[in-house]
Specification:
Layout (H helix, E strand, L loop, with lengths): L15 H12 L6 H8 L4 H15 L3 H8 L2 H11 L2 H13 L6 H8 L4 H15 L3 H8 L2 H12 L1 H10 L3 H14 L8 H10 L2 H15 L3 H8 L2 H29 L6 H11 L4 H12 L3 H7 L4 H11 L3
Helix pairs in contact: 1-2, 1-3, 2-20, 5-17, 5-20, 6-7, 6-8, 7-16, 8-11, 9-10, 10-13, 12-13, 12-14, 14-16, 15-16, 16-17, 16-18, 19-20
Length: about 325
């Protein structure tokens, strides 16, 4: 499914200086006009928000993100800061956070690294080193282990090469070869050779993987998902599954992740904020459609009736757009 529908596309008659002045007014003096902040920042594209931040510094000699942080708090602040950072910097912050301190949040690593195009990964790798003065691959190696670590490290280290392959298009002959290798490494033998799976799933572009998975089905008579479910387990299975599902329908994968974040007791706000903010300019429109198809409810109604409230809820609802 290559059709990706965003919910945020920016505004046509954009004026950075006017927006900067309106934001300054919303934060100046007694009390903060949160609704004005929501109205402006959720309807501008990320490129437009960067221009507003520049105009704000130019005009008032102040840092817009710092000012917003000092006026806002909690989850609402997190949404707004997520919108204000360039996308790759925001994802680097999330990656860094999920590896810092005791224990690593593997689900977040999977969500960010197994679902992005090679070009997006290459941008993240570059930004991570700029921001934290250490390579992402090195930080990840110290926080993960085994085949899971090998897969993520390959994804990150092969991103530059992969980004070139993505532009080069697909190679049907190689797809057939890779599919046979996957079959021989999994169902075709006793035990699974994860190294072959890692190499192919980490190196190939999504378009190429789509061909490989079709070939796999004609060789094996089973889908690659069925093979993975029966051959692999734990966090490696989560990672493989994320790659396979995103190759086939990324919007559905993110819809499931959003649903899980709101399901049961307590909402996983970090996941909610990250997906809605990070996908709003990519495919949040498509994610909404898949959500409704999968759960017979709209994403909007689940968020409105869920455990989010106040300005936080209003900001999420604005990013999601009408049902």
């Amino acid at each position: 499914m290559s059709h990706r529908e965003p919910t945020v596309v920016g505004v046509a008659n954009f004026n950075a200086a006017e927006d900067a002045a309106a934001l300054r007014a919303a934060m100046k003096g007694f009390g903060t006009d949160e609704q004005a902040i929501i109205d402006i920042l959720t309807s501008r594209s990320n490129a437009q928000r960067q221009a507003i931040a520049q105009a704000f510094t130019h005009e008032y000699g102040r840092d817009l993100i710092d000012d917003l942080k000092s006026e806002l708090g909690g989850n609402f602040e997190d949404v707004i800061v997520a919108l204000m950072l360039p996308p790759e910097q925001y994802l680097c912050k999330e990656l860094h956070h999920c590896m810092e301190g005791a224990g690593t949040d593997e689900e977040t690593l999977v969500e960010i690294l197994c679902t992005r195009t090679k070009k997006e990964i290459a941008d993240i790798v570059q930004a991570y080193e700029d921001m934290y003065s250490r390579p992402l691959a090195e930080h990840m190696c110290s926080e993960t282990s085994g085949d899971f670590r090998r897969l993520l490290t390959l994804i990150v280290t092969s991103a530059h090469q992969g980004a070139r392959d993505e532009e080069a298009g697909v190679d049907p002959a190689r797809a057939q070869e890779c599919a046979q290798q996957l079959y021989d490494a999994g169902e075709g033998k006793w035990g699974t050779d994860e190294e072959v799976f890692n190499k192919i799933l980490a190196h190939e572009s999504f378009a190429q993987l789509r061909l490989i998975f079709e070939e796999y089905k004609s060789i094996s008579g089973r889908t690659i998902e069925q093979a993975i479910k029966s051959e692999v387990d734990g966090e490696l299975k989560e990672a493989y599954t994320a790659i396979v599902e995103c190759v086939e329908n990324a919007a559905a994968w993110f819809a499931q992740r959003l649903h899980a974040a709101m399901d049961g007791a307590g909402t996983s706000d970090k996941v909610l904020i990250r997906i809605i903010a990070a996908r709003s300019e990519i495919d949040l429109g498509s994610i909404k459609q898949e959500y409704e198809r999968l759960y017979d409810k709209t994403l909007l109604s689940d968020i409105s009736q869920g455990e989010t409230s106040g300005d936080y809820k209003r900001a999420l609802v604005a990013l999601i757009g009408p049902a």
